[in-house]
Predict the 3D structure of the following.
Amino acid sequence: MLIEHLVQIMIALFGLTGLIALAANRIFLGCILALIGESFWIWSSYTTEQWGSVSVLAVYLIVYLLGIVTRWPRKAPPPQPDPVPSVSKVVPVASISQAAVKRALNNHGEK
């Protein structure tokens, strides 16, 4: 009898913390916690021969596993270098003098 009470406490504990994590958009953590709670649900449903619940829990198991697989933490790819440098990287704007601008404008019309 004590084991059934402990199982019910674990169902409530992991079920609620999993839902809170999912509501806080912590999907990976929520799926992990819910999957742990799922094992207690399955045990409880199996021992009481609630076969409808066991079949529904199998679907929940698949959903939680998909959530874990799709949200598994991955290493971020290394940053890619900029393929085309911008003008400000090639020639700093502050280094162009006003005289150089005037010469460029005056020489623009000449060929």
Remarks:
- Helices lie at 2-23, 27-47, 51-70, 87-90, 98-108.
- Residues 31 and 63 are 9 Å apart (CA to CA).
- The two ends are 100 Å apart (CA to CA).
